[in-house]
Write a structure and sequence with these properties.
It catalyses: [protein]-peptidylproline (omega=180) = [protein]-peptidylproline (omega=0). It is built from 3 helices and 7 strands; from the N terminus they run αββββαβαββ. It is α+β, with helices and mostly antiparallel strands and about 160 residues long.
Length: about 160
């Protein structure tokens, strides 16, 4: 009897996981399409630049530093992350506390983008899903989402 219960539970769990996978995949496809349209429209902003990878960025405040961090450096930043609809999913600014981390420990869009900055810069990044979480959801971030971050660089390897 217990073997049957275990088998039924395993089938239910497998069914839920398969359903979640296909729902996540469909959501990712929709979000990727919407995100691509958003990024194409965003290029009409003359202040927005694009890297070869597709990362879009605009400098909001020009810093007075001269050194750019490397991917292996540790940086101290303030950031505010939103989805294209304005939903805030994370913000050190709202928490009132900067954060430090290794640039090689974050999503590709951050690693690439922050290396373009110098201390004192405040930059807005428009990160395509392929440079973010791809087709996976992450916390409050739906699968396939374009991520928008305002990032202020306070320090490198401090």
């Amino acid at each position: 009897m217990s073997k049957i219960i275990v088998a039924v539970l395993l089938l239910i769990i497998a069914s839920v996981l398969v359903n979640r996978y296909f729902t996540n995949r469909k959501s990712a496809e929709v979000n990727i399409t919407v995100g691509q349209e958003y990024l194409i429209e965003n290029l009409k902003n003359v202040n927005v630049q694009t890297t070869d990878s597709g990362l879009q960025y605009e400098t909001l405040v020009q810093g007075d530093g001269s050194v750019h961090p490397k991917a292996t450096d540790r940086v101290t930043v303030h950031y505010h992350g939103t989805l294209i609809d304005g939903t805030v999913f994370d913000s050190s600014v709202e928490r009132g506390q900067t954060i430090s981390f290794g640039l090689n420990q974050v999503i590709k869009g951050w690693t690439e983008g922050v290396q373009l900055m110098v201390v004192g810069d405040k930059t807005r990044f428009y990160i395509p899903s392929k440079l973010g979480y791809g087709t996976q959801a992450a916390g409050k971030i739906p699968a396939g989402s374009v991520l928008i971050f305002e990032v202020e660089l306070f320090g490198i390897n401090e």
